[in-house]
């Protein structure tokens, strides 16, 4: 093999000299030690070169080939117009990205199908945690006070509908739901019209919340009856900026909130101030603040403004408003309040937290100049808590 | 000749003129390559034509991008020759007479002598291995450089040198044996 490698450069030089027109004998004379090996291969080269002289290409064959090719081009062009550069680029992109797109589409389809399926899920079913996680996620998204309250109420309605469905299916399951607490003439306690069995030791505490909107954790029995486990006033925590003040009412973003005298006594916010409010729903509509945390005060002094529209049009309904909602700078506060409420639920208190006794709502105290008084709706039924469940 | 890359781009869009230019440029060299490797003139013509139809088919389907049209044509020609040789080995047929034509300025005696040399060399080449046939055809019949041959055969230049040396030595033995018959 080494000899072959040594021969290669010599062979190349011999080839060059032969191509230059030198005779074979003259070339080999310069490499006598390699002559025996070089002669046959160089003679073979010369034989090929000698035979090459007349390897003509038949013109007729070339014309036939070209004609055949032209016919085929015309046939294909007639069948399908070729794509332009842009179309070809798109096609190549589709080809190269098709597997990735298919994977993404498959993942999205699975996520979408799971999400859709979870909407119908009931407590105790495999996809129910997905449904709850999705709701918590939407609650964590930025929203103004009114929108936030609307979302929470929507999910409360879902919990209620789930309990109705489970009762129809006569399933045994722990359930959570909300509703107004009423004591019927038949002596049966009902939450959102659903009758519940109340253990003796809870009757007194429960009676204090009659007429209020409460949160209930109960055991659903196969006979569709519900046994109360624990309960509390349903509080919604909202954060936003005070955009208007009207007597004992404050407007947080686009939501009007009644402020109880006890809460107002601790001090009302000023317009533009950031606040976090724990509210309860009132039976006649609207929401009542039972706890008020004041946030940062705007730099410029604010003037209390008179309402420009009838307050009742926005009360607690989450109705749309033309005003731009303030961005929620209090996201952390939201989470803290929510976590506190969740941990309260987990504790399952044996003593019912209370939002205060149900009394006829007194006339709200004055704020600002104090001349204007506001009478909250449903004066005979409205709760006026003196302390929050967190207290 | 138009720039090969531009020509190929136009051919990609099935531009008849671009394809015709590719055909006319490369047909002679492909034909010569085939004629060294096959002893059937009709088969050589068929395969030469088929090489360009396959190029058209490839451009039309766009399944594999043609980057170097010459390399693609020789590669396809080589595959078609090997296929034809495999078929021939399975079902041997008597070779047809080689194509003969008078070169300019040759008298009949000279032409006969040249034709005999040509037949002998081609006969000897066709007894080599496919790689040996290809390297001798590209290097010495079509006068391609070592680098061009290396690129077309997808081998290193060193491997081409070794291959061509052995091929020539074997060719020489075949020629001797033919002369000795």
Description:
The complex is a heterodimer of chains A (391) and B (181). Chain A has ten helices and ten strands. By secondary structure, chain A is of the alpha+beta class. Among the domains of chain A are: 2-48; 133-233, OB fold (Dihydrolipoamide Acetyltransferase, E2P), CATH 2.40.50; 237-347, OB fold (Dihydrolipoamide Acetyltransferase, E2P) (Beta Barrel), CATH 2.40.50. Chain A has a five-stranded antiparallel beta sheet. In chain A, strands 6-7-8-10-9 form a five-stranded mixed barrel. In chain A, strand 9 and strand 10 (287-294) form a beta hairpin. Chain A is elongated. By secondary structure, chain B is mainly α. Chain B is built from eight helices and no strands. In chain B, helix 1 (4-12) crosses helix 2 and helix 7 (146-153) crosses helix 8. Chain B starts with a helix and ends with a helix. Classes of the chains: A alpha+beta (391), B mainly alpha (181). The interface between A and B is large, with 42 and 50 residues.
Feature tags:
heterodimer; A: 391 residues; alpha+beta; OB fold (Dihydrolipoamide Acetyltransferase, E2P); 5-stranded antiparallel sheet; 10 helices; 42% helix; 18% strand; elongated; disordered C terminus; B: 181 residues; Rna Polymerase Sigma Factor, Chain: A; Arc Repressor Mutant, subunit A; 2 domains; 8 helices
Please tell me the overall pLDDT of chain A.
73
Tell me the series of helices and strands of chain B, N- to C-terminal.
HHHHHHHH
- How would you sum up the major sheet of chain B? none
Form type of chain A: elongated
CATH topology of the largest domain in chain B: Rna Polymerase Sigma Factor, Chain: A
Here the CATH topology of the domain at 237-347 in chain A equals OB fold (Dihydrolipoamide Acetyltransferase, E2P)
Give the class-level CATH name of the domain at 237-347 in chain A. Mainly Beta
What is the CATH architecture annotation of the domain at 237-347 in chain A?
Answer: Beta Barrel
Radius of gyration of chain A: 43 Å
Average pLDDT of chain B, to the nearest integer? 81
The CATH homologous superfamily of the largest domain in chain B is named RNA polymerase sigma factor, region 2, helix turn helix motif
> Could you give the order of the helices and strands of chain A?
HHHHHHHEEEHEEEEEHEEH
Number of strands of chain B: 0
* Class computed from helices, strands and strand pairing of chain A: alpha+beta
């Amino acid at each position: 093999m080494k000899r072959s490698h040594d021969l290669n450069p010599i062979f190349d030089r011999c080839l060059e000299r032969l191509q230059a027109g030198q005779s074979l004998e003259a070339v080999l004379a310069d490499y006598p030690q390699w002559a025996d090996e070089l002669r046959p291969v160089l003679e073979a080269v010369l034989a090929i070169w000698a035979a090459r002289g007349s390897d003509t290409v038949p013109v007729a064959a070339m014309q036939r080939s070209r004609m055949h090719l032209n016919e085929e081009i015309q046939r294909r062009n007639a069948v399908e117009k070729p794509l332009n550069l842009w179309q070809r680029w798109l096609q190549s992109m589709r080809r190269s990205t098709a597997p990735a797109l298919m994977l993404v589409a498959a993942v999205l389809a699975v996520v979408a199908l799971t999400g859709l399926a979870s909407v119908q899920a009931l407590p105790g079913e495999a996809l129910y945690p997905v449904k709850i996680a999705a709701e918590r996620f939407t609650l964590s998204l930025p929203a103004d006070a009114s929108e936030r309250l609307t979302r929470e109420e929507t999910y409360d309605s879902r919990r209620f509908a789930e309990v109705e469905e489970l009762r129809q299916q006569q399933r045994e399951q722990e359930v959570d739901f909300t509703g107004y607490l009423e004591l019927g003439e038949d002596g049966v306690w009902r939450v959102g019209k659903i009758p519940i069995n109340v253990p003796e030791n809870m009757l007194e505490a429960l009676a204090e919340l009659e007429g209020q909107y409460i949160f209930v954790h109960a055991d659903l029995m196969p006979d569709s009856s519900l046994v109360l486990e624990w309960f509390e006033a349903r509080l919604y925590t909202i954060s936003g900026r005070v955009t208007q003040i009207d007597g004992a009412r404050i407007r947080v973003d686009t939501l009007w909130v009644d402020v109880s005298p006890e809460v107002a006594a601790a001090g009302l916010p000023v317009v533009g101030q950031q606040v976090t409010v724990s509210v309860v729903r009132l039976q006649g509509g609207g929401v009542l603040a039972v706890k008020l945390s004041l946030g940062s005060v705007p730099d410029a002094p604010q003037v209390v403004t008179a309402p420009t529209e009838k307050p009742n049009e926005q009360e607690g309904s989450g109705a749309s408003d033309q005003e731009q909602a303030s961005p929620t700078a209090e996201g952390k506060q939201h989470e803290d309040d929510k976590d506190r409420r969740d941990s309260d639920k987990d504790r399952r208190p044996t003593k019912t937290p209370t939002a205060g006794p149900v009394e006829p709502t007194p006339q709200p105290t004055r704020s600002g100049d104090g001349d204007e008084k506001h009478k909250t709706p449903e004066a005979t039924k409205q709760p006026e808590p003196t302390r929050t469940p967190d207290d | 000749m138009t720039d090969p890359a531009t020509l190929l781009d136009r051919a990609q869009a099935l531009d008849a003129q671009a394809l015709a230019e590719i055909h006319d440029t490369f047909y002679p060299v492909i034909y010569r390559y085939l004629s060294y490797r096959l002893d059937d003139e009709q088969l050589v013509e068929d395969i030469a034509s088929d090489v360009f139809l396959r190029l058209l088919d490839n451009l039309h389907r766009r399944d594999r991008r043609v980057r170097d049209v010459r390399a693609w044509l020789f590669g396809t020609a080589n595959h078609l020759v090997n296929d034809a040789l495999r078929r021939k080995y399975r079902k041997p047929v008597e070779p047809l007479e080689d194509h003969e034509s008078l070169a300019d300025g040759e008298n009949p005696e000279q032409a006969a002598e040249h034709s005999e040399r040509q037949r002998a060399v081609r006969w000897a080449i066709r007894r080599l291995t496919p790689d040996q046939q290809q390297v001798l055809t590209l290097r010495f019949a079509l006068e391609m450089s070592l680098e061009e041959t290396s690129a077309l055969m997808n081998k290193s230049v060193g491997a081409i040198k070794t291959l061509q040396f052995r091929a020539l030595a074997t060719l020489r033995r075949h020629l001797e044996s033919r002369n000795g018959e």
